[in-house]
Amino acid sequence: MKKPAFTLIELLIVIAIIAALSAILLPALSACRRQVKAVICGSNLRQMFLAFKVYEQEKGTFPHGFVDWFVDFSQPPGGYVGDAAYDNMGWWWFQIMDIETKNAGKKNIVCCPSKCVNGIKPMTNILLGNYGVNRSICKDAPQITGITGSDFVGNPLSLDEIPRPSQTLLLVDSGYSLISWRGVSNISGPYFYDPRREGAFYVPGLTINKKREIEGTITSECKEDALNGRHPRKTVNVIFTDGHLNRLKADSLFVEESGGEYHNRSPLWVPGG
User: Fold this and answer.
1) 22 φ, ψ to 5°?
2) What is the pTM of this model?
């Protein structure tokens, strides 16, 4: 007596059904993974804000965005981060607040889980493809090697100097660890004072990025992140200076230059400006 078995036709039908189900379910699973990563990203920003809040309460101001090593003459714990060929060496805002930065690219609140840059060096460079601090609040320390007299150089602001903290962003998904209104504008440039990282000075998914030279001197490491965005529907996570978190369309952060005027700059990017 023959044992019951599947016929070839039945096997082909089963395979076809599995393939059809996979085609239906895989995009949904991929979308779910992106949503989960976006939620983790928001959690990272909330945790970092606590460090900003504690620092501001203890020091009276938010931290500097960057302090050149010529100013401090000391290395941060664990050494300098970034790529010496493209990034200035010194103390960055997360090091000033003593936020853990080991294992860049792995589970770390300074690293966006949706990081979308290409290449081994950019993936392990904590300055690229994670979060950017608003340079109008966390200004750079006056530097021997940098620019002076800029709106982004000087003393960082205190919370009392920000008239509408619920409307002024502090941290956002960003191509670089520093960001400002210039990086989201249609001005002719420059967007960032350092030409080595001008191509990384953007907010992911912003439409205006299509008209910019994103590669610059860093080939196409950041292009996918800049053009296609990092989170679903080209949204970005934003933490404001009062501590509340929003996920916004990247284009809602755009600053339009028209006739010498900059629309949507204040109070979003420039407190009281």
Assistant:
1) -60, -45
2) 0.86
